[in-house]
Write a structure and sequence with these properties.
Distance between the termini: 35 Å
CATH topology: Rossmann fold
Helix content: 25-40%
Order of helices and strands: EEEHEEHHHEHEHEEHHH
CATH class: Alpha Beta
Radius of gyration: 19 Å
Largest sheet: 6 strands, mixed
Number of helices: 9
Strand content: 25-35%
CATH architecture: 3-Layer(aba) Sandwich
């Protein structure tokens, strides 16, 4: 793997109940890059991120960082997966201890992240009583407590209101500007258009990847380019290709 590459997946395969969620997937993300993965439900976006995070063991192929490198990665899952009966402060403390942060470092980092995420005034509230947008910001804060060089976001703005979505994107842009490598799965084309690198994922296969300009060829929108490639994939090879 090149020294400039932060995430590398080579021909990875992952199946569930005999069905392939990822089928020989190749993805490469350079350090400091903001990479958007777009596809419909069931495309394999979550599975890909979980393989990169080391939460799933791949059946074949290779993936880095992958397993055994927990402190290099921050993972922000889709939906609310924190402890609803703990306060904002208590959730940060719990995840800080999971990542092995010393008490002083944890206290300092928690203060920074509470201000960063706009949650300082809500630190004593139970996480279960926060709005959906604030829960997502708390999840992000817990994911980056240990200052990981790689951040994985699984559809972080799904189901949140437009204002919270805009605020969350501001946090992403600040982290990106600070040099964090970010891989983000999304179902929203307007979100992935903000990314430097876009991966089209469909039914466990990478249809294409590259910059927005490369994928659209300067003509179509990103969504139109994706739908065209998806249609071609589902149609299969042409008769001319079959007879070659």
């Amino acid at each position: 793997m090149s020294v400039d590459v932060a995430v590398e997946a080579r021909a990875i395969v992952k199946s569930f109940a005999g069905m392939r969620a990822l089928d020989t997937v190749d993805v490469e993300v350079t350090k400091g890059e903001l990479c958007g993965i777009v596809g419909a439900d069931g495309a394999g976006k979550t599975t890909l991120l979980r393989c990169v995070a080391g939460l799933y063991r791949v059946e074949s192929g290779s993936v880095l960082p992958g397993r055994g490198r927990r402190n290099q990665v921050g993972f922000c899952p889709q939906g609310f997966h924190l402890y609803a009966d703990l306060t904002v402060d208590e959730n940060l403390e719990f995840f800080g201890l999971v990542y092995g942060l010393e008490k002083r470092t944890l206290a300092q980092r928690s203060e920074e992240l509470l201000r960063f995420a706009g949650l300082a005034e809500h630190r004593s509230r139970l996480a279960g009583n926060l709005s959906g947008g604030m829960q997502q910001k708390l999840t992000l804060a817990c994911s980056v407590l240990h200052r990981p060089p790689i951040l994985l976001l699984d559809e972080p703005t799904t189901g949140v209101d437009p204002l919270s979505r805009r605020e969350f994107w501001h946090l992403i842009e600040v982290l990106h500007a600070d040099g964090t490598t970010i891989m983000m799965a999304s179902a929203y084309f307007d979100e992935v258009e903000r990314c430097e690198h876009v991966v089209f994922l469909h039914e466990g296969h990478v249809l294409a990847d590259g910059s927005v300009d490369e994928l659209t060829s300067g003509n179509n929108s990103l969504e139109e380019a994706f739908r065209q490639l998806m249609s071609e994939s589902e149609a299969g090879p042409s008769n001319a290709e079959v007879t070659k």
